[in-house]
Amino acid sequence: MKLFRFGPIGQEKPGIQTADGKNLDCSDFGEDWNESFFANEGLYRLRHWLVDHQNSLPEVPKNARIGSPIARPSKIICIGLNYRKHAEEAGMEVPEVPIIFMKATSSLSGPYDPIFIPKNSKQTDWEVELAVIIGKRAKYVSVEDAMDYVAGYAVHNDVSERDFQLRHGGQWVKGKSADNFAPLGPYLVTGDEIADPHNLRLWLKLNGKILQDSNTSDLIFDIPTIVSHLSQYMTLLPGDVISTGTPSGVGMGLKPEPRYLEHGDVVELGIEGLGSSRQVAMNDPEA
């Protein structure tokens, strides 16, 4: 299944996209795509509900805003330097264990919402990433069992302010958490639709020019390793988002000199089988 959410910010409704590309309003199912939904076997229940109700569901208006495919989760967890060439372009050593950092959940936004360049920003950057959405509570999970806890996958732009991240002291979270720094979607694609999440092309364009073009086969730490590792240190809750890292081609690593987002820049990104998203960079209207 492909799940999405639509409507004004804070008033999103649940929807699904059918095999023939129709976007259907699932409001009559009575639940949002949130922690409670996943925790209570929502995907199983939804699949069976659709057998009887799909043909009667209204289509979503063509001009409807598309929001994040899941409601605000308890956590957005990111893995740093998880592609070898990205570590090299950042001038950092390839990690021996997964590098973990968090994004504030308030940074979550829709796949076509603008990227807000924060006040005092000098180096707002882009990162296409495969996001993993957790389907059930995970604690002390083995590598062998880890994929049983995955609900599905989504496209994520781990927008990053490098000056905040690397030169303002403390942890990376400061450079990762501004409003609209986590465009997610357009869809949560359930795991049964993705034959091999470790063999998906992922790409990103800036103003029409391809800057990132890689494959999840290049991940240093694969999804089972990441899920198992995280679950040793924190309880993963249904709906939690794990962003698995970005390949080379971010603005910070461009030669002969870095390139960062400016007002009016257009970022497009996608992952094979998961769809694509598009964001226009703009100065934060509240700055």
TrEMBL record:
InterPro entries, alphabetically? FAH, Fumarylacetoacetase-like_C, Fumarylacetoacetase_C_sf
Among the GO molecular function terms of this UniProt record, one is:
isomerase activity
Per the record, the GO terms for biological process are:
carboxylic acid metabolic process
Q: Which UniProt keywords apply?
A: Hydrolase, Metal-binding
- Keyword Metal-binding listed? The answer is yes
Tell me which residues make up the Fumarylacetoacetase-like C-terminal domain: 75-278
What family does this belong to? Belongs to the FAH family.
Any idea what this protein is called? Answer: FAA hydrolase family protein
Organism whose genome encodes this protein: Algoriphagus kandeliae
